[in-house]
Amino acid sequence: MSNNILSQVSKNKFPIIIFFISIYFIFNFLSGDRGLIEFYKKQKLLEEYKTKNQNLKKEVYSLEKRNEFLSVKINQDYLDQLYRDYFVVGKKGEKIYIIQNSK
Fold first, then answer.
1. 10 Å Cβ neighbour count for 79?
2. How far is Cα 37 from Cα 27, in angstroms, rounded to an integer?
3. Residues 6 or more apart from 36 whose CB is under 8 A from it?
4. pTM to 2 decimals?
């Protein structure tokens, strides 16, 4: 009986080898380091990084504009606005209202 099984296996070597190779490729295609699942994870991560990059570019642009207002060509209106916001002061005759949030 064991000879019968061995003879069957020896006759079907090629299909058995092909089967195991196919299983190996399918497994690596789906779950390897460069598999399909990792591909979709990395695509999602790429989209997150693109949105972060866009937000950071907007923030850098805003900071560059603020820096330009204060260093290259001094904008009197911008300085006046900053002065009023930080020190809560106004011009003569202006009424200033301070609204406090109660929590």
1. 12
2. 11
3. 29, 30
4. 0.49
